[in-house]
Fold this protein.
Amino acid sequence: MIVARIERLEARGTRRDPKELWLAWVGEEPPLREWWHFYLRRFGVDHWYRFAKQRLHWTLPRFGTPEQAERWSDLMPFITWELWLAREIVGDNPLPWQKPQTNLTPGRVCQGMGGGIGCDPYTGPRAQTPQEIARLAEGASPEAQGALSGGEKEPEAEEKGRSIA
């Protein structure tokens, strides 16, 4: 393992633009000119980890055995590739504050699928309320239940002899 401290003369010395960079490398020592390129390549990796944790819910499940967690982790790159390959057949479904895109990222593909694979918290299926679950358990059909979106109002309590001003 090689650890290198690189001093950047033009840097401002802030957190975003540090004067010193500490880089670690495992393997044969790359030529000095390639160190910076390897450092820049890490941003793609960092963004993938963030995407896998936040949008694909990589760290959400709690498994009983390490083998189950390892299998789940093995699926993350495959899911990402599926999203990458599906970008040609999925339409963009931007949120109101997003600009439309023609070249979709895996996150936008996931968003365009409408939560079909459960990776998008914004456009995924709406959770049912306890009242809706109770009505379904009683055997009422969705048509007989009324509006499932919470459109039903609770009956107003009548107060006799008192006026509320």
